[in-house]
Design a protein that fits this description.
Order of helices and strands: EHEHHEHHHHHEHHHHHEHHHHH
Strand order of the largest sheet: 1-2-3
Number of domains: 3
CATH architecture of the largest domain: 3-Layer(aba) Sandwich
Bound molecules: tryptophan, iron/sulfur cluster
Strand content: 5-15%
Structural class: mainly alpha
Length: about 400
Amino acid sequence: MYAERVLSGMRPTGALHLGHYHGVLKNWVKLQNEYPCLFFVADWHALTTQYDDPQSIEQSSWNMLIDWLAAGVDPERATLFIQSQVPEHAELHLLMSMMTPLGWLERVPTYKDQQEKLAGKDLTTYGFLGYPLLMSADILIYRADKVPVGEDQIPHVEFTRELARRFNHMYGREPGFEEKVEAALARLNSKNRRSLKDARTRFQQNGEREALARAKALLGELDLAADDRERLAGWLEGTGKTILVEPGYLLTEESKMTGLDGEKMSKSYGNTIALRESAESVTKKIRTMPTDPSRIRRNDPGEPDRCPVWQLHQVYSDAATKEWAQQGCRSAGIGCLDCKQPVIDGILREQGPMRERAQIYLDHPALLRDIVAAGRDKARQLAGETMRDVRAAMGLTSG
Ligand code: TRP
Ligand code: SF4
């Protein structure tokens, strides 16, 4: 049975925090149980904005991998790798740059947005303009079916889809398509071969869409190599093999995690708790968190709705504790430090297993290197398959 492939990447920007955990990472941990997943450190993407200060990227990359593993991303289930260790991404980026209209890149909304947001930085560079194209290469090189992204990244996936369509339209069929289809058919048993041929005739001569749909479902069940499956799908429909697969996206819901000041938890606001922050620091940060400003003295009643600590209760406390906090706050029956304790406990409980998992890799860095080396090998193998087709389609020799 063909399983759809999931791919996502993250820029290395420093220690991940609980907002990343509740937004992106928990989602990855769920996805890895449902699909074959590839997750990679987008270190070249970091360079598009950090080209003038690259020294921290390498360390951030390794730390981020530890954060992923700490959060429960399982290297047995997901392929983890570092983008710059798979140079095929750069090759595909270059080849696609030949046929990417400049206007498409200039119109990507993040292009102008980010230039305005990072106004102190000169982002009138070739690399920064090409960043969505690099992201497209990341996705298309693995023929990813689903890309989990936040809302801000959706235009990039749309861009990728348009580019794949343009590419397929321009370079169409792979050379030797007919022979390869024959060879793939020859490897099937005669019953399956007959039903595919029959469905093809019924669709192409009589326009029977159901026959096509049934045949495609059959393709999904047969034990076929991924490229043969695409060839046969193209043959059924009367098109060529799709060289680049148009990806879909999976919208990652924005994390509702509140930061220490009541704003959304974000590195740029300086209101974060790191995934692996020490227990002492977590305790101190929560204890000094602002509360309802009208609760000046212990005896003043407060209003949870005006208090950022209450937001954290939403994430970390059960119904009974929330009831206790609300009542105690409004009646001045509890102090703010009392109220904060279950939140502190909740965060420490959540961090416990993460810290344990991280410790394994901190104690044995070779384990982490092995995981990432295996991920690189797997990624390069998949990327290599796509690149062979791309080179051939663009008239280049694979050597
Ligand atoms: N651009 C993404 C971000 O800034 C990171 C990224 C790079 C990515 N390549 C990708 C995400 C491919 C998904 C798929 O968040
Ligand atoms: Fe906030 Fe709790 Fe203090 Fe009320 S008692 S102000 S909810 S910290």
